[in-house]
Design brief:
- This protein is mainly β.
- The chain has no helices and twelve strands.
- The strands form three sheets. It has a four-stranded antiparallel beta sheet, with no helix packed on it. A four-stranded antiparallel beta sheet has the order 5-6-7-8, with no helix packed on it.
- A hairpin with a 5-residue loop joins strand 11 (114-118) and strand 12.
- The radius of gyration is 15 Å and the shape is globular.
- The termini are far apart.
- The mean pLDDT is 91.
Length: 133
């Protein structure tokens, strides 16, 4: 079994998201002693390790990234999740962070590029390269 590679806490619910080295994402509920056993829902798109996860501030979306150089936006709902993809980002993703208003998402890559993405249209805005390691 492959281990947990990243973790994010839901901003409004008792839920955490874990990413796995095998590409799976699992949402865990009732993990804080609220029930006898934690419950989970699994999502899987990534073919390699999930390197970072981030919820939007309202918790309606979960963003994931990994070695595929694709930002995956999961719209969470009662029936699971629907996905939107922002592909061909140039290098594997390392970190994902959303602004307080969720209008901007910052992504760092393994090659030390920071890319800004519109949280509204899910399109790349600009990238800053050449940052120090």
């Amino acid at each position: 079994q492959l281990g947990i590679s990243c973790l994010a806490s839901h901003p409004t619910q008792g839920c955490i998201a874990t990413g796995c080295a095998g590409g799976q994402i699992r949402l865990w509920y009732n993990f804080a002693g609220e029930a006898a056993e934690p419950e989970s829902v699994q999502f899987h798109w990534h073919s390699h390790a999930v390197t970072d996860l981030a919820f939007t501030h309202d918790g309606a979306y979960l963003m994931s990234g990994g070695e595929e150089s694709v930002l995956v936006i999961w719209q969470l709902n009662d029936n699971g999740a629907t996905r939107t993809f922002l592909p061909r980002l140039g290098a594997p993703l390392k970190h994902i962070s959303s602004s307080e208003s969720d209008q901007l998402t910052a992504i760092t890559h393994v090659d030390n590029v920071v890319r800004m993405v519109s949280g509204i249209s899910c399109t790349p805005l600009f990238a800053i390269g050449g940052l120090l390691k």
